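User: Teach me something about this protein's shape.
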Amino acid sequence: MINSNVFDYVNVLGKAADASWMRNEVIANNIANVDTPGYKRQDVDFETQLRHALGNTRYKSVDARVAAATSAELTARVYTDSAGFSYRLDGNNVDIDTESTELAANQIKYNGLISSVNAEFANLKMVIK
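Assistant: First, the predicted structure itself:
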């Protein structure tokens, strides 16, 4: 991460894009294991970390909250979702329709995050001129 207040939003958006990319890989892995007996679907949790980092601060403005968010707080983690639940007798809990929907939604989110990073750099470029 770049260590300057100018890049606070870029840093947070970059961490969110990394988490979205990780979620894309995890969902693809879930789809690849749709027929694997005993496989339990996995997911990525980043939104809770972001909410915690931005919500639990003494600062009032959004800019100050984003500036106070550290990279240690914004770490995505992979977890097993509904480990005790199964759709089928073989113990697998992956639903291909749910995974396909999640994958499409995540790709839209990732594209939006990348567009936001590009917009931040466009703003910085405009200020520099």
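Now, about its shape. The mean pLDDT is 86. The CA atoms of residues 29 and 124 lie 37 Å apart. If you'd like, I can walk through any region in more detail.
User: That's plenty for now, thanks!
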